[in-house]
Amino acid sequence: MLARLKLLKTQKGIDSILMLSGILIVWITTFFYPHQIPKAALAGAAAPGAAMWQASSLWLALAMIFLALLDALRPGTWLSRYRTALRILALSSILVPLAIYLLSVSTDVMCQSAVACPNIGSCWWLLGLALLWLPAQPRKATLAASIILACGLLLGLLSSQPYPYTLWSAWIAAYILYLLYRCFTPDDALA
């Protein structure tokens, strides 16, 4: 339905969706989680199998960085088709966990302490895998992003961390990926 309205195909549409989703997260956080959670309640908060997910995410991040460097050093290989996606994935594998970690350390919005939420945001850069299908196959890219987002939100529900941290982590990752995509693609790439 949104594709028919051409809302997702314009820069203003994606900006509006990100803005409205941010407002929705603020509303959810305010009304459903009105009290701050004490630091003692967050001690040891981690998703089931978090160490496995972090290790897998780290190896995949290193692979993306390696492939992006390989493409930069040897352009014209089979990787040139995925050049933009690889560069965005390599950058996002560094920037997304770093931004979420820094926000969790410096504010009470994300987490009460860095020790309490060590793994928050370490895997959300994987939303960028949907870029492998852009711009040629936007429906597959949307489907891939939706599946990755749904899996991440479900894992957030299963973790012992407060759910607003999961929501904010996903939003921050989506926004960073969107900004990186805008930097690496021409203005008419969304049209």
Quick overview:
With 191 residues, this protein is an all-alpha fold. It contains six helices and no strands. It has one domain.
Number of strands: 0
Estimated helix fraction: 55-70%
Number of domains: 1
β content, as a range? under 5%
Number of helices: 6
Structural class: mainly alpha
Low-confidence spans: pLDDT under 50, at least 5 residues?
Answer: 1-8, 37-45
Secondary-structure element order, N to C = HHHHHH
Radius of gyration: 17 Å
Provide an overview of this structure.
It contains 6 helices and no strands. With 191 residues, it is mainly alpha-helical. The protein has one domain (49-190). It starts with 10 loop residues before the first helix and ends in a 7-residue tail after the last helix. The model is unreliable at 1-8 and 37-45 (pLDDT under 50).
What's the helix and strand layout?
Layout: H1 11-32, H2 39-42, H3 50-73, H4 83-106, H5 138-158, H6 163-184
Helix pairs in contact: 1-6, 3-4, 4-6, 5-6
Q: Main attributes?
A:
191 residues, mainly alpha, 6 helices, 61% helix, globular, disordered N terminus
